[in-house]
Amino acid sequence: MPLFSSRPQSNTTPNLTFIGPDAHGTIYIEDARGIRTPFFAVTVAKHSKPSLSVNRILPSGHQAPFFTSHTSSLSGASRINLINRASEIKVEVSYEGMQLRRGFHAPMGKLGWFPSGNSGCNQKLKDKNATVLAKLTANIGHSKEPRLELLVPCDDYLVDLIVATGMAVYRDTVKEVEQVGKVSKVIGGVFGG
C-alpha cells in the first residue's frame, strides 16, 4: 500500500499529514477525515548516540527500525541513517542571507529546511526553485502537537527523506529552544530579571 497520493492537490491540502510526537513518543498519520493511526515510535537519548531513533509501527503492532539521527554539538550537522534504505543523509547547517538553512542532498537536487515565522520553530522544506514541499508546524512549549505536512505528491523514498529530516530538524529545534531558555534564565538571574 503506497504512503502517498499521486493525484494533484492544491498547496492548502497536504498529501500526507503526520502529527506528533505526543508525550509517549508516538507519531500518527492523519487522514483527510482527521482519523489518526499510530505510525512511528520515537526514542530520544540525551547522553548517547544515536540521539534520535525512530521505528515504524507496523499494522501487527510490532515495530521496524526506520532511521537514527545524531547531531554534532560543534557543527550542528545531523547524520541520519535511513535503515531500510541502507543510506546516510547529512543535514548541514548554513545561512542563506540572514536565514538559517538545514540543507541536504536528495535525488532531485539540494533541499533545505528554512524557519517560517518569527519563532523559528515552524519550518518549510524548499527545493532549489523555492517550491515548498513540506511544512513543519511546531509550537514548542505549548500543548499543540507538531504537524508535518507533505504538500506535493511524493514517491516512497522522498516521503522517507522528508519525514526523517523533518523529525531531525524538529528535535534539533526543540534542543535549541531549551538551550535558549536555560541561557535566558541564567542571564535573568544574573541581572535580577
What can you tell me about this protein's structure?
The chain is α+β, with helices and mostly antiparallel strands and 193 residues long. The chain has one domain (16-190): Porin (Beta Barrel), CATH 2.40.160. Helix content is 18%, strand content 40%. It is built from 1 helix and 12 strands, in the order ββββββββββββα. Strands 1-2-3-4-5-6-7-8-9-10-11-12 form a 12-stranded antiparallel β-barrel. A hairpin with a 4-residue loop joins strand 6 (78-82) and strand 7. The longest helix has 35 residues, at 156-190. It is globular. The protein starts with 15 loop residues before the first strand and ends with a helix. Mean pLDDT is 81; it is low at 1-11.
CATH topology: Porin
Count the domains.
Answer: 1
N-C termini distance: 56 Å
Strand order across the biggest sheet? 1-2-3-4-5-6-7-8-9-10-11-12
Q: In percent, how much strand structure appears in the residues? A: 35-45%
Identify the CATH class: Mainly Beta
Helix and strand run: EEEEEEEEEEEEH
Biggest sheet record: 12 strands, antiparallel, barrel
> So what's the overall shape?
globular
Number of DSSP helical runs: 1
The low-confidence parts are: 1-11
